[in-house]
Amino acid sequence: ALRRRHAALHGLAPARRRAADHHALRARLRLPQPPAVRAPPPRHGRRQLHRRATVWRQTYKGGVWRPCIHNLTNSLPESNGYIYVEANGGLNQQRTSICNAVAIAGFLNATLIIPNFHFHSIWKDPSKFRDIYDEEHFVKRLQNDVRVVNKAPDFIMERFGHNLSNVFNFKIKAWSSSTYYKDVVLPKLVEERFIRISPFANRLSFDAPPVVQRLRCLVNFEALKFSNPIATLSETLISRMRERSAESNGKYIAVHLRFEEDMVAFSCCVYDGGDEEKKEMDVAREIGWRGKFTRRGKVIRPGIIRMNGKCPLTPLEVGLMLRGMGFNNKTAIYLASGKIYKSEKTMAPLLEMFPLLQTKETLASDEELAPFKNFSSRMAALDYSVCTYSEVFVTTQGGNFPHFLMGHRRYLYGGHSKTIKPDKRRLAILFDNPRIGWKSLKRHLLNMRAHSDAKGVEMKRPNESIYTFPCPDCMCRLNKTTHSKPIHTR
Question: Per the UniProt entry, what is one GO biological process (predicted)?
Answer without folding.
Answer: fucose metabolic process
